[in-house]
Specification:
9-stranded mixed sheet; alpha/beta; 3 domains; Immunoglobulin-like; single chain; 9-stranded parallel sheet; TIM Barrel
């Protein structure tokens, strides 16, 4: 397979006589794929039952004339006006009430009318276009999960039905929901209302987690239905969806059961100057989507900016794309080709300027497409070997109070992944709670509050058999009803870690009381600030790794380690919530337990590797706009520029070293 580099394009926006000019310009840049159709429902079916797919067929064939294959989108992220006129409840609602017509998204996926017509348009589209040889893949819907909740009447009925199916009887629900709190005890499922605007404390932790599960279920049900249709009428094409972020409001691990690949929309902010760590968020998403691609070790970046802002240089576009590739991407689709002249996204910066000239990133993209045509085949189908994993759980994200997208749980996870990835300079996988972790030497798993006794045993056995486990005191403190175990933190894992929490204080409160910034200090003098909750520990067999520095907590344990069986359990008694905190913790673990880096990376270089047919390819992507020196402790062959390299080497600003490791 060649690497697919292309752009989204909306032929329904433009006169047909302009299509060929657009495709010819794409060809001049070396682009070889275009994504079309994900918002085209009204174009296909302007009135109920009147289908016309021929204009899209012509667009697909015209793109192919210029060497450009098509990824076609299903259209269920939008709703035509005639369908809303037929049944206003096809739209959902939020805390302000039911949605009126306009914009996109917000369909009620519990509404039978919407589901009926969504199935029909997907079926008609697949039957009409699915056999076109110029279609290589399908995108289901668009950014599933937006707008993160649905509170209309159909959703409320659907939630009740889902609860009936899950619990079987109302007594089981009452027990799971701890309903005697505030006399919230139910006699019948029909009494249940989504607490959209309830009085004080309406969203109990137990109601919240079940609502999030139901919301996720509705999206996975829609997408799996679409996938089934596409496989029947358009076989041998890959199927994916473009998650807005794999951590958001749909359980993407379930999505892996019906998708060939995962994709995500890379709108992580571009680095600028020395502020490169934002790209570690992209690195995490890449690793996440690689895990979600059904064992295929590859994924798509379904949207990415194709321009640099005025305070940056166009080479940043190439750096972000090489970072994608270094983690296993087989495609990057820029958003978008032409900026619309009207609508909600009018004047959005695109590959083309307003005067239809190619923007300043054009030469950078052309250089990149030339290099990929020559060299991508070397890593096509490669794997990403890793001895380190970070564990993510959608349900544990949803379980945190007042769930919001990219809330406390997710920010902590981003920082944990990013800090370890950066400090260890090696591949880091993202794993689920149910994955076999035995292949990993090191596992980082912050904030896994909800955990069964079977889960706790699995993590204990992992350490006993030689693994290194890093968790915080929040872990293993609740069951999967989001009810708290009557145990001191870290709950079910207190024995494993050899420590327990006896009191806590917020960092801001401690700072105010002492007039000093709360921090932790390692034996070598490394010190990092603490920004959130601080827990006071009582040791029960653990050794101290780092201590608090502030107030009466000064000199007390902040981070501990315990030898358990053949492995080690590392516990930190605070919320890191800071990438620098995790970089220091990763540095301690690297030095203590001998976690091997791929190379010695200077600050700003993100390092990964890919392996194919016994050959290991090293990627060092400079996410800074200034040169950075790295140290390569072996000999490599520079794939792009040729020649052998070893020892000190400078990666230019926003540059990449793509090299074959010499095994001699």
């Amino acid at each position: 397979m060649e690497f697919y580099l292309g752009s989204s394009y909306y032929p329904e926006w433009w006169p047909e006589e302009e299509w060929e000019e657009d495709f010819a310009k794409m060809e001049s840049l070396g682009l070889n794929v275009v994504r079309m159709g994900e918002f085209a429902w009204s174009w296909y079916e302007p009135r109920e039952g009147e289908f016309n797919f021929e204009p899209m067929r012509r667009a697909i064939d015209l793109a192919a004339k210029h060497g450009i294959k098509t990824v076609l989108g299903t259209t269920t992220a939008v709703c035509p006006p005639w369908l809303y006129q037929k049944d206003r409840h096809v739209k959902g609602g939020n805390i302000h009430g039911d949605y009126s017509f306009g914009g996109r998204k917000g369909q009620c996926l519990s509404n039978e009318t919407f589901l009926k017509y969504a199935r029909r348009i997907t079926l008609e589209q697949a039957k009409a276009l699915g056999d076109n040889p110029n279609i290589i893949g399908w995108q289901l819907d668009n950014e599933p999960g937006f707008p993160f909740n649905d509170f209309d009447g159909c959703c409320n009925e659907g939630f009740r039905d889902w609860l009936r199916e899950k619990y079987g009887n109302i007594d089981a629900l009452n027990k799971a929901w701890f309903s005697m709190m505030w006399s919230n005890y139910y006699n019948d499922f029909d009494q249940i209302e989504i607490p959209v605007n309830a009085a004080e404390g309406g969203w109990s932790p137990q109601v919240q987690i079940d609502y999030r599960r139901y919301f996720s279920f509705t999206f996975n049900s829609l997408l799996s239905m679409e996938a089934e249709i596409i496989r029947k009428y358009s076989p041998d094409r890959f199927i994916y969806t473009n998650w807005p972020g794999a951590n958001w409001s749909v359980d993407c691990f379930e999505g892996a059961e019906y998708l060939d690949y995962a994709g995500w929309d890379n709108y992580v902010g571009q680095p600028a100057g020395d502020a490169y760590r934002v790209q570690l968020r992209a690195s995490m998403e890449h690793s996440f989507d690689r895990r979600l691609s059904s064992g295929k070790e590859r994924f798509l970046v379904a949207e990415q900016l194709a321009f640099a802002d005025a305070n940056n240089v166009p080479e940043v576009v190439a750096a972000q794309t090489w970072l994608n590739i270094s983690h296993g991407a087989f495609a990057t689709i820029f958003f978008e080709w032409r900026s619309p002249t009207g609508g909600a996204e009018e004047a959005y910066p695109s590959l083309l300027m307003r005067d239809k000239s190619i923007g300043e990133a054009g030469p950078v993209i052309k250089k990149m497409t030339d290099a990929l045509k020559k060299h991508y085949s070397k890593i096509d189908g490669a794997s990403t070997p890793s001895k380190v994993a970070a564990v993510y759980s959608h349900e544990n994200s949803w379980a945190h109070a007042g769930w919001v997208v990219d809330g406390f749980y997710d920010e902590e996870f981003f920082n944990a992944y990013g800090g370890f990835k950066n400090a260890l300079a090696c591949n880091v996988d993202v794993a689920s709670m149910r994955d076999d972790l035995s292949k990993y030497k090191l596992v980082i798993a912050p904030n896994l509050r909800m955990m069964t006794r079977e889960d706790a045993k699995a993590y204990t056995d992992y350490v006993k058999n030689g693994g290194i486990l890093v968790m915080n005191t929040e872990c293993a403190t609740r069951d999967f009803n989001n009810q708290i175990y009557e145990l001191l933190e870290p709950g079910l894992l207190s024995e494993l870690f050899g420590a327990e929490v006896i009191s806590k204080i917020g960092a801001s409160k401690l700072n105010a009381e002492t007039g000093a910034k709360a921090s932790v200090r390692y034996a070598d003098g490394t010190e990092r600030q603490v920004r959130s909750t601080i827990n006071k520990l009582r040791l029960k067999g653990a050794d101290v790794v780092a201590e608090y520095t502030t107030g009466r907590l000064a000199g007390t344990p902040a981070i501990t380690v315990r030898k358990y069986g053949e492995g080690y359990a590392v516990l930190y008694s605070t919320d890191g919530n800071d990438v620098y905190f995790y970089e220091a913790l990763a540095g301690y673990i690297k030095n203590t337990f001998g976690i091997e880096s791929l190379l010695e990376a200077g600050d700003g270089v993100i390092v990964s590797s890919r392996v194919k047919e016994g050959k290991e390819y090293i990627f060092a992507v400079n996410a800074k706009d200034s040169p950075v020196e790295i140290n390569i402790p072996y000999t490599v062959e520079d794939v792009i520029n040729g020649g052998e390299i070893s020892g000190r080497y400078t990666v230019e600003g926003y540059g990449v070293l793509f090299a074959l490791k010499n095994n001699r």
